[in-house]
Amino acid sequence: MEIRIETGVIARYYGELMYIVYDAPFCWLHFTGKNRYRVVVTMKSLMANLPDASFFRCKRSVILNVCYYKEYNHTQSMVVMEDGREFKLTRINNVKFNKIRNNLPYHSPPCSRCYTCTDEKCESRVVFYSQKKS
User: Fold this and answer.
1) 127 band by pLDDT with thresholds 50, 70 and 90
2) CB under 8 Å, gap of 24 or more: what pairs does 112-120 form?
3) Which of left, alpha, beta for 90 (phi over 0: left; psi -120 to 50: alpha)?
4) For 67, which of 19, 45, 94, 97 is 20 to 30 Å away at the CA?
């Protein structure tokens, strides 16, 4: 994905995007490695361009990449992301998040060399698999 920022354009992979927070009139895109970028774009246009498989709009102002949640507390409707940021879910979205969490693909961190390894022996390649039902 290409992101237009104040100083130009940067390129990042969708898989590196952990979450998006809307703070009018800007959106803050938070990537892995504590990288964040401020862009002027609507949440509606962002959701339209993000892959449905792993991105979930948990509030009007927050979009989460479900692959990067570290902890989920169903009783408190709370999601903790890998960088420690906490997001409160609405009651309806708490049920939706739990359903998505149980059915969505999970992945290990991508290969730092190429991000799209196809080499089966690469220990860092992106691996998608469904959570096993117990």
Assistant:
1) very low
2) 115/13, 115/15, 115/16
3) beta
4) 45
Q: Per-residue pLDDT tens for 97-120? A: 888 887 765 544 444 444 444 555
Q: What's the CATH number where 44 sits?
A: 2.40.50.1020
Quote the CA–CA distance of 59 and 88 in Å, as a whole number. 9
Q: Is the pLDDT of residue 12 over 80?
A: no
- Of the two residues 82 and 132, the one the predictor is more confident about is 82
Distance CA 81, CA 63 (A): 12
Alpha-carbon dihedral sign for residues 76, 52, 59, 16: positive
Map tokens 């803050």 to a residue. Answer: 28
What are the tokens at 134?
């117990």
CA distance 126 to 118: 8
CA distances in angstroms from 44 to 11, 20, 113, listed in the order given: 21, 12, 33
Instruction: Look at the chain and report how many structural domains it folds into.
Output: 1
